[in-house]
Automatic annotation (TrEMBL), chain A:
It is found in: Cell inner membrane. Residues 33-278, 297-547 form the ABC transporter domain. Residues 561-570 have a biased composition (Acidic residues). Pfam families: ABC_tran (PF00005), oligo_HPY (PF08352). It comes from Salipiger bermudensis (strain DSM 26914 / JCM 13377 / KCTC 12554 / HTCC2601) (Pelagibaca bermudensis). This is Peptide/opine/nickel uptake family ABC transporter, ATP-binding protein. SUPFAM superfamilies: P-loop containing nucleoside triphosphate hydrolases. One of its GO terms (cellular component) is plasma membrane. The keyword Nucleotide-binding applies.
TrEMBL record, chain B:
This is Peptide/opine/nickel uptake family ABC transporter, permease protein. Keywords: Cell membrane, Membrane, Transmembrane, Transmembrane helix, Transport. One of its GO terms (molecular function) is dipeptide transmembrane transporter activity. Pfam families: BPD_transp_1, BPD_transp_1_N. Residues 95-299 form the ABC transmembrane type-1 domain. PROSITE patterns: ABC_TM1 (PS50928).
Amino acid sequence: MTPSLVSKYLGEREGQRPSHLSDRTQSGSKPLLEIDALSLTIHGKPILRDLSLTIAPGEIVALTGESGSGKSMTALAAMGLLPQGAETSGALRLDGTNLCQLSERRLCAIRGREIGMIFQEPMTALNPVQRIGDQVAETILVHKAMPRAAARARAAEMLARVGLPPERVPPSRYPHELSGGQRQRVVIAMAIALRPKLLIADEPTTALDVTTQAQILDLLRELVREEGMGLMMITHDLAVVSEMADRIAVMNSGEIVEQGATARLFAEMRHPYTRQLFEASRHRADLPEARPDGPLLRVETVTRHYPGPRQGLFRPGRAQVAVNGVSFEIARGERVGLVGESGCGKSTLARAILGLEPVQAGAITLDGAPVYRHGKPDRAVRRRVQVVFQDPYGSFNPRHRVGRLIAEPFHLLDDPPRGPERAAAIARALTDVGLKPDHAEQHIHAFSGGQRQRIAIARALIIRPELVIFDEAVSALDVRVRAQILDLIADLSRQYGLTYLFISHDLSVVRGITDRVLVMRSGEIVEAGETETVFDNPAHWYTKSLLAAAPSLPRPPGGGQEDDREPDAR
Amino acid sequence: MLAYALKRLFILAISLAIASLVIFLVVEVAPGDPASFMLGINARPDTVAALRAELGLDLPVHERYLAWVSGMVQGDFGTSYTYRAPVAQMVAERVQVSLPLALYALLLSTLIAFPAGIFAAARRGKPGDVAVMGATQLGVAVPNFWFAMLLVLLFALKLRWFSAGGFPGWDDPLQGLKALTLPAVALALPQAAILARVMRSALIDILHEDFIRTARAKGLSRRQALWRHGVRNALIPVLTIIGLQFSFLLAGAIIIEQVFFLPGLGRLIFQAITQRDLIVVESVVMLLVFAVIVVTFVTDLAYAAVDPRLRRRR
């Protein structure tokens, strides 16, 4: 396929572009998408109430709010992809056509051609058994926009357009051969292959690392600018919203509580919910002064590698180094952060400290005693370290009652408490994390994500461990809940003088909850120091790039204290 | 892909070696001396000893094992004690019935199960789905020999479209195929019922995947998304079941072979066991193991063809 042939087929649509662009340059031009008093119920349950919103060509409008606020349902309503049992009232007009009244056949013709959509989870959004070029070309072919060969060429061109040039990432690749960021680029290429007028991005960067997130956001901005698309951007992250959007709509329980131009909305924040979200996003727990008291955990030149894929039948694979010569110490009473992007070895290190895996070199000792001995975790050491994981939904056995769940670490003790003593310990643990002793009788499904994370903390603290590892413990939580959990950790620190290692990819969280921070990259610690010092004056280029890539919140209204995040780094 | 295939082939060879050893040992420790069994309880000890020598039963165990294996590799499966005929020849005759029957049944079951499973998955919870699921429930529950008898009653005795049993040989391929039709249907239906259920549930799982939603966002209709993105992904569990079913059909057709008087492998091994014809039992079991392992190998290759994640290097 020659380029001229491609442009021949493209010409038709390209030709429309100037008029399209001139549309939006007129101020107050007629909106591309107009949501007019949209209400939605699913099996009679109200999901969206009286939603009104417009998006003009070339405009980025962000829908923000916490999980369950109806952001994603709004997007699916615009795509006509609502689940079964959904009933809508009101109108959803694209270029004047009410999408709610269209037949499924007409909607199929609009999806992918007039409206493109990008999803949150790039790891699962692609068909694992189809080549990426074919998946992009399918968008074109299903709309019969071009013959097969032209569609192939266009697909390759689109992949190059989103930063996957054929010499580096050929269209013949399968999704599993790509990284998360690359897969998200493929999803974007699919969504924009026919240059739709409206692009809907549902949490497009939530599953990505900060540096990748910055690249994807740049790409989206560029596409909107150059192609004149309207972008409906759905995200819970106010910092991302403030950097991306022209206008913002804040959603809470199915309603838009406040909307307006980004700068003005952040300056005014008329609705209390908006203020709460904003406050929670920049929340810093009030961590008591640390009183370090002698070394507790010592990690000495630890190396952990995994066997790679075999090179041949009798040739073992080259080892993949997950942790490479890492050394650090944590003193009793100290709160240490560990930051880095996915795959940098954070979690492997955490597993090694917990004694769940052997290390190939170096030593991990707690008070001088190795955590892993004779091919298994040392029980006497193991009971002094506990962990809180990220997923508040998957890390509990759903068939056990809460009391039994949080009493689990007792099996590490030689003489676990029994009877009333045990019940008292459970009640105490629940009260400590802000729950009630009665909650011990309930099953885990009765609790919200935040409550579950409280239960996870109760479980970790019930045997009074000397070291707690928080492995992305607040990453899956909504901002307001996250703020509460961070406060809880600060409170517990005050009460019990906790020593912990707080692992997170989120720099702003780590900043508020730790005294010292370690920055990890490709299995090595590239920078370590006092949290404030590292954040204010990063020494290593990688730390600098992480800080620069992290989106930041605007200053709070009323000339209050400046955003805590490094302003120079932007 | 080639490296993957070679690796699978290596595993295949090792499996065969281990299987041959296990079969030999199991048959070896099984009670009952073939020589005395063949000659009856009144046989004189020296006659028995002579027969044992003739059969090679007096040799040390490892020599017999090596002789057995090296014979098999050269296509010599030994001589049956009871029939006094080369086992290879007996097996070859039976395979001519059993292998086409298994393939025929598998083909029928796939042809029934795929459309039924896909149809039901596409209409989950609707009357079409309920009907297909009800039918497969029945198919799983009804024993195939009973079903075989119903087929004979209807198509052989009443309608006289097919003969009630026996096998005329492959001189006239059409007649041969005709004779295998009723048995193949009787074998295929229960298998089809299982396969359809697997296909349906695999496809329903796949239809909940994110990439199906992505496909719909591209503008594919539900049906297009199902066919283009659902079916191939659902094939992986289905292939597993097909592989298992083929192995079963090859050897597990004993009852159906009895009902239709077919001279198949199942009957051969049944007779050999009752007559303690160790050489035949060993050889046929080894042959079946070989078939199962080869089918597994082919299934593994099919996986790789369907799922690119399994071929590490292309």
